[in-house]
Model the fold of this input.
Amino acid sequence: MSSGFFITGFLGGDGMIRKTAESDIPMIEQLMRSEPGFWNENWPNDVLKKAIRAADSLSFVWEEKGIISGFACAHDLGFRGYLSELIVSKAARGKSIGSQLLERIEQELKSRGCPVLISDVWKTAAPFYLKLGWRPPDVILLAKRL
Done:
């Protein structure tokens, strides 16, 4: 029996949220490449493997009938959680997959005593997060190319 969280009756289908396995990496990469601007061709070949390992059990996929159509990855920094990735396939959007993946991560972080979850998100995705109760913090995001 899988250790996943089953959701049945999901808009006519059966889907499952489960922890990410290294064997999921090819499908996750394909999913990320399907969204223009999401995948960075300069990333090292093992970038997803490193991200999943660093997530320390805070990486989940949405799987239905052997197809991964959602992926979320977060990191527990102790004083806050950081959502590094959330993507849902275009065909599966509007079916609550993203919000259910986020809810699973939030539950895991709460159980660890983590008080807040942060993320940097695409401007076009901001309405999705705002609808789920996320708010902009009183800080700015800065970046430096290395």
